[in-house]
Description:
The chain is an alpha+beta fold. The chain folds into 4 domains: 2-101, Orthogonal Bundle (Arc Repressor Mutant, subunit A), CATH 1.10.10.10; 129-336, Rossmann fold, CATH 3.40.50; 342-401; 414-567, Orthogonal Bundle (Arc Repressor Mutant, subunit A). The chain has 23 helices and 18 strands. The strands form 5 sheets. A 5-stranded antiparallel beta sheet has the order 4-3-2-1-8, covered by helices on one side. Strands 10-11-12-9-13 form a 5-stranded parallel beta sheet, with helices on both faces. The protein has a 3-stranded antiparallel beta sheet with strand order 5-7-6. Helix 7 runs antiparallel to helix 10. The relative contact order is 0.09. The model is unreliable at 105-123 and 240-251 (pLDDT under 50).
Amino acid sequence: MKQFDCFGLDTANQCLLRSGAPIDLAPKPFAVLRYLVENPGRLITHDELLDKLWPETFVQPQVLRTYMLELRKILGDDAGQPRFIQTLPKRGYRFVAQVTERATAEPIRAHHAAGTPLQESRRGPVVCRAAELARLNALFNQAERGERQVVFVSGAAGIGKTTLVDAFCDQLAATHGVQSAQGVRVARGGCVQGIGGKEEYYPVVEALRALCAGPDGEAACRVLARMAPAWLSLGRESTAAEAEDARSGAKQERTLGDLCSALEEMAAEKPLALVFEDVHWADDSTLHLISALARRRAQARLMVLTTDCPHHGSSEDPLKGLKHDLLMRRLCAEMTVAPLPRTAVLQLIARELGQQALPAGLADFVFQRSEGNPLFVVAVVEHLIAQRVLVRRGAGAVWEQGAPFPEMEAGVPDPLMRMIELEIERLSEDEQRMLEAASLMNVAFPAWAVAAALEKDPMEVEEACDALARRLHFVVRAGRDELPDGTNSAFYCFAHGIYREVLYQRQSSTRRARRHVRIAERLGELFAGREASVARERSMHYEAAGDPARAARVLEDAENDVAEAGVC
């Protein structure tokens, strides 16, 4: 365990601790911090960091700045007066805090009692979400006291939002007794892609039907019949009299005010939790209902709990506007579900395989590959089993390693490939081409390179990349870089390497080759007279384009230039 100030770097469990409490830190920033902490007091150049952490892979140096910004934010460090990480302009970084060594902490068994074997957790649906569950329960306790709550649970696809909500609803049932007289009502509805623009109140209707069909269904129907009769037919099958009234024109207009009043009346009898999932696909009417329930001033033992994937590719995002307005007015709460730390990934793998002892290196491989996304963790494990990298052996049918772990870039599990392809297909053709071109530059990509690959105007491409970064959860703006000609170009990062791999693989080899060559040629133009400084990068682009002779020639020319400069 490396100790500095109040922080501990647990290299065995690959996690950062603050005063003993684990802090969420993605694998790549953790690797950067670990290398700095293990080499305190000396200059670590950009090239050394890149070579040690990304061997045999070209990574834009700008990505280091992105990770340093993230690390400084987590450590509470100031670049102007550094306590931990000192930046030496155009040279590299130095870790300036005093580092001490102490006994390694015991492996963290996330949310398990001491001595509880991991195999028992196979019955548990949620891993390492105790803090999130505690906050949801605290908010529900406020709702029980009459302080209505609207809660948005946000996070990337596959991050575990639904699993978290499922666990919360299970806890409500266990602690409050859903079917008891003193219990709580829970009603759920889900939004479906493509339906939002065609069918109003789709998840609301599903939730009303759950209320009317639940243990307190008769009571719920009586409230609707008295306070919002026009909504009753959505909650249950219409009676013959109601059907006749509808045919004769006696049908009443459905208003939001009536429905809000009815829901509040139900909540007066028992606390009510309404759960709407995937509201990034919600129709405007459903969002209007959420807004109305949040803004009403009367006390209500009501909680509205939603899940959403932010920046889900829509050019118009009414949900974002609603959340921003409610947050500004302190009328809602937002929870962002973060990736799992390594210890939780280990626990999830153990649960999936049904054994506590795991093959050496498996947890590290899956953690780096999945970056803590639970859906990706399960998909990677299933992929390793399908590829017979993991096999059952012995009398106890224990999972063991049957083949070397594949290269990190070698293939994407089919379920993830399909999921990401669906996200990409929702974008316009121009946006798809732009992201494909961006994937040629690895995880971090500058706008000028995308422009070169597509032979487009750099300014237009930068504006388009900015728009994508605002809309998509897997593209992040990371900063600006000064080019040799004095101009600036923005650069961006894929939030997860698997997205980059899918975008790279979906291009034909001919198209990729042309684009790699254009980027290599543009690099030569930008660094004219200084070609040796980008020879490695240009060589890798020519190699990827299927021109090894030209790749070798670029490196040879660079070596000759360096030799001639040395002689001079």
